[in-house]
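$ fold --in a.seq
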Amino acid sequence: MPIEQSRDPERFGAFELSGWNSNIAGYETAFGPVARQTVPSMLDAAEIRSGMDVLDVCCGPGALTAAVVERGGRAVGLDFSPAAISLAQTLVPQARFQQGDAQSLPFPAASFDAVLCGYGLMHVPQPEMALREMLRVLRPGGRAAFSAWDESGVAFPLVYEAVRACGTMDVPLPQGPGFFQFGTRARMLEAMTEAGFGRVNAVSVDQDWHVGGVDQYLEAILKGTVRARAVLAAQTKDAAAGVRAYIADYLNRFRTPAGALAIPMPAVVGSGGHPG
């Protein structure tokens, strides 16, 4: 199955860049704790060891970059968002960060022993280009690892389910690649193979997102996402009330004995090696 690309990459890229420049701090606060649950699986999949040169593409706040440094690696974090780079430099001062395009990496071929991309592929207009670029800068014998939200999770699909039931999806957003096109092991394997990786593998990682209640959930979507935020923000007052009620009713099934919510938010971690 071909990797889906944006039909308007320039407009979609500008939309994502503007969104992440505004929302990266909200993402770190809301989703950083659950995204960090994927980090050990990512590093293991890419076979990260001390002394390796590692590139973290779409690094965001730098969680993977920090973990590479902790394992003794030499890490470079790259992101298209200046706000993300600024936040990552603050949070991980011992690593090097720079702004750049995942679809045109500013590095020579065979520059890195390993490449990581945590939850980034769904945010670039042309993910196949990004995958091929990550393969280009990978040294022979090296491995790359990628993570994506599993389509069986609850947190993001629930937003759209509630809006379809109680509001409208007729929101003028630039067309982007399918958010969950890497959200199963089979699709992740197909994408890596299509991009030219060898020795591919994909695993599912169970993880939960812990939030205090529906209001914290909605605040996280509004302050820590881009596409989902735009859809929610476009609803009328009455529709927004209906969406909130729908989400609150659905989330009750994930309430813990302490009264908080443990929302399933699994990931797919794929990895592949340089074919040389």
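$ fold --in b.seq
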Amino acid sequence: MKYKFLVENKTDNPGIMAEHGLSVYIEASHKKILFDAGATDLLIRNAEKMEVDLGGVDFAVVSHGHYDHTGGFSAFCQINNNASIYIHKDAFRKSYGMEDGKLEDETSGIRWSRQESERLKDRLVFTDGPCWIDEDTVITGTVICGEDFRPTENFFYRDEEGQLVRDDMCHEQCLVIREKAGLYIFSGCSHRGAVSAINTAKAMFPGERVAVLVAGMHLYSASDEDRQRVIGQILREDINKVMPVHCTGIKAICDLKTGLGEKCVVVTAGDSFDGC
């Protein structure tokens, strides 16, 4: 198992740029996988500097339908002519954040142009429930929320009747890969909860432990109580390596580092890892 961070919010690697987004290149089970594509075509430039051949990617996974995870797919498909892109069937909701009771001007959803959408449509594979690539690799489909889950941010879209509806983020899905060491879980933003992502992944592989969790945990706007509750649950999982990325938030990263020590790895764009 090898995985490389093409896009992340921060970097300390010379020559590598950062942006608000996430993209991870993965080699596992004789497959080359792209998990998310960041907000722009930055993944292409960083991949070149990291000597990652995106043209050889076998398939790609979209964690959820937001711009900071999907913006680079158009550029990716100009380099890669064959890879299917697994995306949830409800990922194209035109959702918006809300501030001071007013919808934001620009959508938080996918921002592909009409031309890009047309160019990409034949590459998309729509998921709903679990989608098994092989016996050790699954795209979870909708992450199942835990009973104690509380969202830290809400998004809204208009339904077919024009009514404003809260996005339940049912288009959030994870990539889970089973290796000898255990499960590797890749979660883009965990809008349905980092613990929900862990439990959904474990339900796919009963009896298996989690070896590595790579996750945007969306705790930057969480209350102190909610942040500590989620972090406490993660600590109890006894995961070999926890990588809080993207939207996790600096307070949560510091709390995880304090609680886990070397088991918490603070990742930046340009970082590469081998195993757990």
